[in-house]
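Structure ticket #2291
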Amino acid sequence: MAKAAFHKNQRVYVKPVGTWALVEHVVPHWAKGLDEPIRIYYDVGLGREFAAEELQSEEPAATGTRISGQHWRIVRARNKWQPVEDCARHPIPGTYPVVMTGETDWGGWRVPGAEYDLDPGKTEAQARLIAAAPQLAAFAGSLVDWARRSGEDMPDSLAELAHRAQDVLSQIDDPA
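Resolution: structure written out below.
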């Protein structure tokens, strides 16, 4: 009897084709008189059905992973919804910030154009804060580690800062 290895709308790597796709349909193959399917194939919209051995799922994101050690950066994207002369009050007219959070230049954080136009200064500040998040998390982690090593030999104000840093890092590690 077969059990489904993937589910509908799951992103999978299709090994024979060498591309990523979404599972559009889970296709069970039934035999008369059996309660469970004998085989399960997956329609990923590439012209034929694939067996589970031909597909590979994405690695699940590890829980409790910190963002320290990563280099996030701000790039400027062209403002396609307004001409440059209509956005002269923007910090850099004709562009808006995009924070790249990976090695490639296509993923990350961006804001809708209408929201950027409401308060460009606020959006620019948010972009800088998000881009600096890995360094801030590393700094907070270093402060907590230093406080643990120091034990009782630290001022109360520094101990309070270390506790606050630990609280922030806990929020990063546990999104619930």
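Closing remark: The chain has two domains: 11-57, 73-173.
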